[in-house]
Amino acid sequence: MTKESPADSGADLGFALRSLARAARAGSLATITNAGQPFVSLVTPAFDAGCTPLLLLSGLSEHTRHLRVEPRCALLITGAANGPNPQTTPRVTLIGRAMPIEDAALRARYLAIHPYAALYAGFGDFALWRLTVEEAHYVGGFGLARHVTQAKLLPAPEAVAAIAAAEPEIIAEANAERAVSERIVAIDLDGCDIAEDDATRRLTFPAPAASPETVRAALRHVAPQKTRGARPAQARGENS
Predict the structure, then answer these.
(1) What is the pTM of this model?
(2) pLDDT above 70: residue 81
(3) What 3-state DSSP class applies to 110?
(4) Can you tell me the mean pLDDT for 115-134?
(5) CA 37 to CA 31: how far, in whole Å?
(6) Across-strand partners of 40?
(7) What is 157-222's CATH number?
C-alpha cells in the first residue's frame, strides 16, 4: 500500500504537482530524433514563478539538436518512493514544446537554483531554454494515474505576477535575519528555494500563496528566522 499523497487526500492537484516538480533538481527529458526515434537524457530543470520549466542546454548535446528541429518534448520529474517498490514513486510528466530564450532574469533564477552551473553557463554553446507546458500526466503511486490539463496545473497568473513583483523585497527581508550559512534565493507562490554553499533545497508552503502578504506568513511557517552563524535545522515542509 502506498502512502497518501496531497493529491489523493483532496488537496489541490495542481499545487501537489507543482510542489513535486519545483523540488526536483534533476529530471529526464524525452526528445524526438530526426528519424522519429524517442531519446531520453538527464537534465537539471529549474522553474520560473509560474512553474514553467527552465533548462540550461548545451548546443553540443543530442537533445538540443533534436529540439532545434522538433520542439515537442516531455520532462519526467520523480519524487521519493513510498516503500521498497519503485512503482510507489510519485512522478509527473510535463508535456509541451521547448524553445531557447534570452532573458537575464530567468537565467539568474536558474543559476540561483543551480549555482554550480555558473562554472559552464557562460560557455558559448550553452543557452537557456523554456518548456511551455501544454498538459501533464501524474502518477501518484501504484495504480493511481491522472491526466492533468494546463489549466489545472498552472497557478493563477494574477497571484504569480503580484508575488514576482514583490520577490526581491521579500527575499531581502527574509535573508536579513537568516543564518549566515544559508540564504533564500528564489520565492514563488508555492514555496522557496534555500541555498547553502553550492547546494539548494526546496521548502514548500502549506498551501499556495495568493499575495505577497501570504508569502511572508508562509515563510514564517516553513522557514523561520535563524540565529546568525548557527547551522540551520531541517524546517517543516522541506522537500529533499
Answers:
(1) 0.87
(2) yes
(3) helix
(4) 96
(5) 8
(6) 30
(7) 3.20.180.10
